[in-house]
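In the current project phase, the collection of sequences with tokenised folds has grown. A sample record is quoted in full directly below:
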Amino acid sequence: MTIKWLGHSCFLMTTDNGTRIMTDPCDPDTGYNIKPVECDILTISHDHHDHNYAALALGEPVRIDSSGEYRVKDVSITGINTWHDDAKGKKRGENIVFVFEFDMMRIVHLGDLGEVPDAETLKKIGHTDVLLTPVGGVYTIDAKGAKAVADALKPKVIIPMHYRTPALAFDLEDLSKCIALVKDRPIHYIRNSEAHLSKDSLGTDRVITLEYAKE
């Protein structure tokens, strides 16, 4: 697959068969000025402006914004209910973790996960090859929480998201705390917004950082 970080929690993943998946598109108020792109599947983890800006998804994508099991073309998708905070949703409501299965890999997008899930939820998420996790705190788990989730799921690749960059219009923690906590893992700094991953190239217990590319 090819995975491109468009900004914040928004990724465009393209399967080997060409199916395009957009996750959590964010609106311009976030500071990210993302150009709309064609996609086949659009997933939205929760109904906040920095995750539900569907205008970025051109074409007629299948929109998935609730928990359950889905199949679209060559992609199997499972949505799992979680919380957007550490108070069972009393502060910021619910969040959906999406598990994507394609190209013989399982990619987990945590959305705006607000707490480290309990054992039952972690079991539902299950085997993870690639973990897309927020690390910026404030509205989500921070770097310490992300590490706890990663230690439980044991992904082969961790890709941080939802952290402070020069483009972001509001305050989150930057990437440095996350990097400090995972310095025992191999860290690969990709100097662009896109990476190519396959089952054979995942490696073990490594971190990949992508750069937001202003277009």
The chain has a mean pLDDT of 95.
